[in-house]
Amino acid sequence: MLFSHIDILDEQFCHRRDCFVAVENGRITYVGQEAPEGDFGEVYDGSGKLLMPGLVNAHSHSAMTLMRGYAENLSLSDWLNTRIFPFEAKLTEEAIYNGTMLAVAEMLRFGVVSTTDMYFMADANAKAVLETGIKMNLGVPVTCFDESHLRDLPVYGEWMDAIPRLHGAGDGRLLLDLAVHAEYTSTPRIVEEVAQLVKEQDLRGHVHLSETRAEHEACKQRHDGKSPARYFRDLGLLDVPTTAAHCVYVEPEDMDILLEKGVTVACNPMSNLKLASGFCPAPQLLERGINVALGTDSVASNNNLNLLEEVKLFAALFKGTTGDPTAITPRQALYAATRAGALAQGREDCGLVKEGFRADLIVLDVAHKAYLYPCHSMENNVVFSALGSDVCLTMVDGKVLYRDGVYTTLDPDAVCRKAGESVERILAQL
């Protein structure tokens, strides 16, 4: 495909007008002001459109779309124990597949090309990913509340079965991470054994870290004053590339650890605010040089997968909390929602409009919309004015998966119907 006469956000997230972008064999092969020579197939008229990198959701629980609006006005502890865990105990592979399909439909509609997910039953999630064409780093989480060894837990067998079959499937679209749910849902033995396994398998890690003050302080009480970051570091879990979700309550020493170990922090502003957990100190993390990416967390706590909402909140929230209007710039917010997430997933050739990179691209319709006029700065407009519904095309590895209301790999009506049927069956059991 050749995108013709289209505005772009280039690899520096600067606005460039009237460009040409060529896509061949899943990659961007040309970016420039002049039309390239050659036959690239369809010529896409980019008049009134903006091409930019696809969004990367750095922390999600996709199948929890089935719990949208199911648990409201609760603290995290009550939310988990009185609503979420009982519902999840009734989930089947079919339900998880249906919930993940619903999430994929929503993400593609809103320009999300890849997600870092933490959820159960790898095959159910993988089926949805491989069928639809989206990208996912999937971490099936381990939880353990006794003195078991990792090899004694069912999740170990699931991991060892799934890794050779699924890691790298779909031409690399599906990658497997190893996930520890959290400090408070595991034991030191389990964390240490997971750390060893993830090194042996040469994979990446995913963990919830310091999501609430109560979690953070309870960890210190249990482990001789060690914060979750220090606890996980000392057990070796951060010795591999790791995404640490939330990091709402991190101390200066924790930030030093995250930087030293190259950890990506997945900031989830809407979910953390909605659950009254607080908010990640993103400006301080960025100032230290820590990679900060953006996530939605689950639909059960957000309540959508519209990552452009997170971009706006991320860019605005810290201005108010710090009193510094420069705390997060629009370009930092755009980077967090795209390139930072791709790097967190180990996808070095993704997340930028750049020659040689994977063609994970989205197009926004920016013409004839009152809320996008005037356009003194396209970057500012995208961050503070654009809506998820402005996405009119979503492309992954050069394949168009959503365009002008039409999906190419899924039937949204059937997806919604099947998800609803799964919800009805679970509610009947509760």
In brief, what are we looking at here?
By secondary structure, the protein is of the alpha/beta class. It has helices spanning 76-88, 93-109, 122-132, 154-166, 188-201, 213-222, 228-234, 252-260, 269-274, 282-288, 307-322, 330-337, 339-344, 378-384, 412-427, and strands at 2-9, 15-24, 27-32, 43-45, 49-53, 55-60, 112-118, 135-142, 174-180, 204-209, 242-246, 264-267, 291-294, 361-365, 391-396, 399-403, 406-407.
Q: Could you report the average pLDDT, rounded to the nearest whole number?
A: 97
- Helix share, percent: 25-40%
Radius of gyration: 21 Å
Number of strands: 17
Low-confidence stretches: none
Question: Mind summarizing the main beta sheet?
Answer: 9 strands, mixed
Strand content: 15-25%
- What's the N-to-C terminus distance? 50 Å
